[in-house]
C-alpha cells in the first residue's frame, strides 16, 4: 500500500481535508504507523531499520509536544509571578529610558553614559520645543549619572512648573562622542495588564513596560 494513500486514509479518519496541508500531531503519527503495519505485505514486511527510525521519530515528536506543554505552563507561571512582583513596585521610584523631566522648583535630570566622559552637555527644552537652558558639566564616569537642575533658564529666571524634555551629549578626552542615554525618573502609582503585558503607571500618567525599567529604589 502506497504511503501517500495511508496518509490520506489517516487524515480522512481524523476529519481533515487533503486539500489543505495539515501538520500531523503525535496521535496522527501513531495512526499512520499503525496503518502502515496493517497494510504491509506479510511476505515483504517493513524493513526493520525503517520501522525503528519511525518509532524514534514518534518518540521525538511526543517529547517535543511534552516540552511545548511544559514551556506553556512555565510561561503562564512566569507571567503570574511577574504580575505579583509588579504590584510590589507601587510607591517605589524607578528610572527608564526617556527624555522627560517634571520641574517643580528643581528637578534631577538622569542619564547613562556608555563610557567615561570629559565633558557632558545637557540641553533642556520647554513644552513648545524651545531651548531654555544649556548646562555644560565637567567629567563624568561611565554608568548612571544625574544633573540637579535648579529650574532656571539660561538668564537665571525661574521657570514655571511643567514637563520639559532634555538631550544629553558627551565626549571623552580625545573629543570622541560618548553614547549618552537619557533616563526618566518617577514614582510607580499603578499597574495595568494588557494582552499579557505588564505596564507600570508612573506619576499617574506615563505607561512603561515592566521590562523597560532600569533601576528601582526606595518607596513610600
Describe, in plain words, how this protein is organized in 3D.
The protein is of the alpha+beta class and 220 residues long. It folds into 2 domains: 3-86, no CATH class; 93-217, Immunoglobulin-like, CATH 2.60.40. 30% of the residues lie in helices and 36% in strands. The protein is built from 3 helices and 12 strands, in the order αααββββββββββββ. The strands form 2 sheets. Strands 1, 3, 6, 9, 10, 11 and 12 form a 7-stranded antiparallel beta sheet that branches. The radius of gyration is 31 Å and the shape is elongated. Residues 1-7 have low confidence and may be disordered.
* CATH hierarchy: architecture of the largest domain: Sandwich
How many discrete domains?
2
Q: Count the helices. How many?
A: 3
Beta-strand content: 35-45%
Helical content class: 25-40%
Terminus-to-terminus distance:
75 Å
Rg measurement, Å: 31 Å
N-to-C order of helices and strands: HHHEEEEEEEEEEEE
The main β sheet shows up as: 7 strands, antiparallel
Average the pLDDT over all residues and give the rounded result. 79
The CATH topology of the largest domain turns out to be Immunoglobulin-like
| Chain oligomer state | single chain
Count of beta strands:
12
- Please write the CATH class name of the largest domain: Mainly Beta
Name the shape in a single word. Answer: elongated
Outline the low-pLDDT stretches. 1-7
Category from helices, strands and their pairing = alpha+beta
Throw out a few tags for this protein.
single chain; 220 residues; alpha+beta; 2 domains; seven-stranded antiparallel beta sheet; 12 strands; 30% helix; 36% strand
